[in-house]
Amino acid sequence: MEKKLIEKAKKEGRKALTEAEAKQVLRRYGIPVVEESVAADPEEAVRQAHQYGFPVVLKGLGTRLTHKTERGLVRLNLRNKRDVLAAAKAIARSAGEDLEGYLIQPMIRGRREFVAGLFCDPQFGPIVMFGLGGIFTEALGDVVFRLTPLDEAEAGRMIDEIRSSKLLDAFRGDSPARREDIVRTLVGLSRLAEEVADITEVDINPLVIGADGRVTAVDALIIIGDRPAGKTAHHPVDPRELEKIFYPRSIALIGASPQIGKWGNMLFSNVLAGGYRGEVYPVNPKGGEIAGRKVYRNVMEIPGEVDLGVVTIPAAHVPALIPEFKAKGIRHMLLITSGFGELGGEGRQAETDLVKAAAEAGVTILGPNTMGICNPHAKFFCIGTSCWPQPGPVGLVSQSGNMGIQLLDFAEAEGIGIRAFCGSGNEAMITIEDYLRTFEVDDITKTVVLYVESTKDGRRFYSTARQVSRKKPVVVLKGGRTAAGSRAAASHTGAMASNIRIFNAACRQAGVVLADQPMDLLDLSAAFSSLPLPRGKRVAIMTLGGGWGVVATDVCVEMGLEVPHLTPDVIARIDGILPPYWSRENPVDLVGEFEPSLPGKILEALIAWDECDAVIHLGVVGRTRMVLKSLDAARASGQAIEQVFYDEGRKLYDGAEEEFFAFSARMMEKYGKPVLGVFLDDEKSKTVREVEGSPYKGIAFLTPERAVKTLARMVDYEEWLRKENARSVDGA
Amino acid sequence: MEKKLIEKAKKEGRKALTEAEAKQVLRRYGIPVVEESVAADPEEAVRQAHQYGFPVVLKGLGTRLTHKTERGLVRLNLRNKRDVLAAAKAIARSAGEDLEGYLIQPMIRGRREFVAGLFCDPQFGPIVMFGLGGIFTEALGDVVFRLTPLDEAEAGRMIDEIRSSKLLDAFRGDSPARREDIVRTLVGLSRLAEEVADITEVDINPLVIGADGRVTAVDALIIIGDRPAGKTAHHPVDPRELEKIFYPRSIALIGASPQIGKWGNMLFSNVLAGGYRGEVYPVNPKGGEIAGRKVYRNVMEIPGEVDLGVVTIPAAHVPALIPEFKAKGIRHMLLITSGFGELGGEGRQAETDLVKAAAEAGVTILGPNTMGICNPHAKFFCIGTSCWPQPGPVGLVSQSGNMGIQLLDFAEAEGIGIRAFCGSGNEAMITIEDYLRTFEVDDITKTVVLYVESTKDGRRFYSTARQVSRKKPVVVLKGGRTAAGSRAAASHTGAMASNIRIFNAACRQAGVVLADQPMDLLDLSAAFSSLPLPRGKRVAIMTLGGGWGVVATDVCVEMGLEVPHLTPDVIARIDGILPPYWSRENPVDLVGEFEPSLPGKILEALIAWDECDAVIHLGVVGRTRMVLKSLDAARASGQAIEQVFYDEGRKLYDGAEEEFFAFSARMMEKYGKPVLGVFLDDEKSKTVREVEGSPYKGIAFLTPERAVKTLARMVDYEEWLRKENARSVDGA
């Protein structure tokens, strides 16, 4: 039926269905559309009004009638026959020859107006919107988005997510909104998007909630046409094949140079300095030697097999390498060289041509315009920065080179182990989704971290990220969040759908953990790779002092976590540990007790507590320096402090710290709850502390807000994961 | 007139004025109240309706009639005589014996409903509210507050501050709201609060904006009664007198102890280790010696004069010290001891008694329950942590000891100079406002930083902070933001006024710079004390690479700053500095150029640019380590790198960094614009770099978001300062 209506409209050169047609379509998709009927003349309208019961609404009908409200073609709240006749007269006068009849509806009353809609994003495809409607849609922007298809649970989450969701509860004498009707509307829009490809936008505004809670679509607009096609061609890459690039048995450096500062030298230095054990073949037409190694004039001269060709020669000379790679049997090219697609125009064409030739020759290209890759597990550091992060579980991909440099440098300094890193460059052939899939199937990777500026195919990014998120957390920082995202759109829904809103919606739906800033990426990698997931949002806090606990509690609550009151059982337990004047409150204040075994005891009492899902400790780690400084002060004041005091102090607290981390790890294993720490001072210690023999690690941050923010994101991910798993079990 | 109405209502035992009375009062204060009149019976109501013109509104009138809407006593949109009579009948039925007459009004139509109100906060006194009204007030919470008195400019800022202020512009065919009427309403409420003390709450909900932009108060509620009196007695302290406490010529340590770890030992150690040059007299009834110094049995035994008595003995023994202090002529007591007001009950009484006795004896008490004070300018470190921050311009007060410890420790590590620090403890006598005034008149102090959990007199805090903010920035972190802040209130206004909302409103109005977390306090201290204020929000960014610039731009825009496009003049200038392929965009990418003199040249081009108010540079500082690491890598790869390369590298970049900071300072002097940096890596360098001979300093943060956030707060403060000065000039 809807297809016929659309064909008819298209034949008539229209870009939208009439209001009556639109409602007919929506009704078929289970959306609670207001009852209505068409009347040919005023008298028929009056007859129908009597059937609905007064008051009624009368509208002018006609395929050429748009902007009805502004043109006075919508007459509300008509209470009797006289009102209807007068309204019909006014409408006829205003519409003139365009009038084809009247639409008559019962008057739907409701103080609560919402909006629902559909929009097709060039990157992410069909998107369903829900939010506060009426005059508030644009003014307040309280709307949420979801990619189709949408199940009922997801629709329910949309409803909960808007700021004004309180309006849907019982409200000033009005009944709660019939939630199932809203869910039906959103799921219906999703089905419509999936089944009718010619529909590009839908607006239901307002979706009125009556005093009795009934939900009614009072007005509807359906825009028809061709959906935008924003996707680019994709060369499928086998994740297992890509994995091999990170474990080359031998590499050729095409463009190797003895000149310090040049890329061709820097990569050579870094690969060797990093301890790479495979063969390294420098290649340069000039020949000669670099650091005592023979330089080959071209790849054909190389005696052995080559797994990976690393290319730093100018862009113009790169195409000629493809047949050489083919001849030599080099199947992978790491293309550092810039001057391709990022220049636009000719550069873009050169990139397309290169990719085509490479695909035909069976050569996979990583890049171009990349800062390189590294795999600390193989001591393979083929990157444009002298940085040697330790091997570990974090898979890292960056679309920006200098962001990659900084992240690796911070990771090294904070003790965050890297599984592999890749600067993905222009992603001419291997895209961010390919890396995602590679890290998905790699058993060493526990957490995937991405810095993303753009995606080539939003839908593909979404579905890949969702698939990976089911197995391990995917943490994303989006660069260019605030870039102008305006677009042409005929509907409210379209106008509200900025690029970053859609990107964020896709990420949330896919379970992706969104970071606000670069430092978050590191904190989240450390935590996700080192700790069990919290199973709820209740936090127990242990602190060395009051103000700090207060601040940590503030941040917890502001981030949506809970800091529950202590219950009698846990109070009784801590009564046996702390002196009688302790506060009996969460945060638990160690009341200045510096006895090294104390924090462990309190930690166990808290983590064992049924109403706690995670423990944050403040100031327990990093006390060594404080104690030693105080001994220094005593000595400087003329008191006789023997060296043994320093040594004992250091041993006591350093040992106690290690012991505390080991104990935390055991507690995490025993109770399956995460423990996060905050340093007492800025001793600049490493964030992550390995604990031998444990799947978990100790972690401590420089400030309470970083610990809390990290935990809050873990809670979100766990919640998503639980729902996603339930969904899979339901077969949805 | 209003006083008579209130007296009448009180006499009748009412807690509110009738709607008609309330509107009468509001009209006298210039608030655009809907026309209305009282009718004794339905017939009179019909006559009046004819005068106003239909449609009209009819309401039941009676001193005992409340919750009118819910009881069906409000009938809207009556279009003719028949409607009015039917409505009057229905109202009479529903009101029963409580009906005293009818209120009749023209029907005011408007899709845009706002709310305005008045509330008396126990801490901060009368508060005016403005926000989104109708059914959205509680559901969306889009309201702002201001302390009275309120001038027109401040009222205008309230209007701009709500999220839904767009609704006041021309909107979907409706005219812009008459802003002057809203201003008049808010200023009128403020005057009412100032002039009529018996009014405790006012609600104007809705304040309707008509399609023609007219503003009308359609409904009004005035609650009467006694205003809450939350203030506690205050002992005035002369700021110059308080200043002396930070420069004692001699101190007595009452409770001095040889036992390491005790407060009586720690303070002794820290004072001497800090290099204090005045006399230190240990006092302890046991006598003997500590570290070779004679211990006096009581203060009377001390041979010389004592400026400050530092007390660590148990609370029970403290009162006995007052007569001794008086006899010995010790005028100031730093009371470290806890066990007073913070315990409540008897402790509170003991504190009150102690303060009374001290006041009578002419002794000023700082504390009790404090971690101490320090003044690095006098090498006086009488604090419970072994920490020696350098002398500088930041005055720091903390209501929490461990927050103070952490802040001092971070300040020391980051090179942030401290003017003086005080743990203010229970503030029994000297309150946070006294410290504010002391730092106000102190010429060395450039920035005042406070950690506040509660105020004893909110109004006093507000007026003092506002006074100080006119001279120097006051930076505040509020602890306990999320503590339950519910309270009994009869109005919407009261219900919306949580403690933290009022505190934040007071701070914003007073020009206080609000910090979100402890680290912000340090960043803001560093920046405010080291840089000129920006005169606008346009930021030029210089970066070593793309992704970083993207992220910094995102954070700028999210924090309300602007990153303008480069204009031809500045492009032409940079064309002469960077290679031809530079991006010609802001952020300016140094395109990997490592030449040491380059950043200075770009910096000058940007800071001289008319459309830039501040410069942020990313990655220029901290390159030394990168260069040296890359030399290391080259050597490790077997290349012959001579030591002179390292030495040159270090000299080149270390020297270049110092030179760059010095140059930045000269640029800041020349152009009066701030320059903020971000390190390339986490070399853990100091945030603040002194520049000899300049009033300004170099600063660099660990991450872009910290630099941007800091700059955004500086912009806010400068804007406040400009308006505040304009206000003073106007004599407002």
Task: Walk me through what this model shows.
The structure is a homodimer of 732-residue chains. Chain A is an alpha/beta fold. Chain A folds into four domains: 35-107, Dna Ligase, domain 1 (2-Layer Sandwich); 112-224, 2-Layer Sandwich (D-amino Acid Aminotransferase, Chain A, domain 1); 239-528, Succinyl-CoA synthetase domains (Rossmann fold, 3-Layer(aba) Sandwich); 531-719, Rossmann fold, CATH 3.40.50.261. In chain A, helix 14 links the parallel strand 22 and strand 23 (474-478). The radius of gyration of chain A is 32 Å and the shape is flat. Mean pLDDT of chain A is 90; it is low at 484-488. Chains A and B meet through helix 5, helix 9, helix 12, helix 18 and helix 21 of A and helix 5, helix 9, helix 12, helix 18 and helix 21 of B.
Give the oligomer, counting copies of the same chain as homo and different chains as hetero.
homodimer
- Average pLDDT value of chain A? 90
Report how far apart the termini of chain A are.
27 Å
Biggest interface pair, counts: A-B, 98 and 99 residues
The assigned CATH architecture of the largest domain in chain A is 3-Layer(aba) Sandwich
State the shape of chain A: flat
Q: How many beta strands in the DSSP annotation of chain A? A: 30
Q: Characterize the main sheet of chain A.
A: 7 strands, mixed
Poorly predicted ranges of chain A (pLDDT <50, ≥5 residues)? 484-488
Fourth-level CATH superfamily of the largest domain in chain A: Succinyl-CoA synthetase domains
Order of strands across the biggest sheet of chain A?
19-18-21-20-22-23-24
Strand content of chain A: 15-25%
Q: Which fold name corresponds to the CATH topology of the largest domain in chain A?
A: Rossmann fold
In angstroms, what is the radius of gyration of chain A? 32 Å
* Whole-number count of domains of chain A: 4
Which structural category do the helix and sheet elements of chain A fall into?
A: alpha/beta
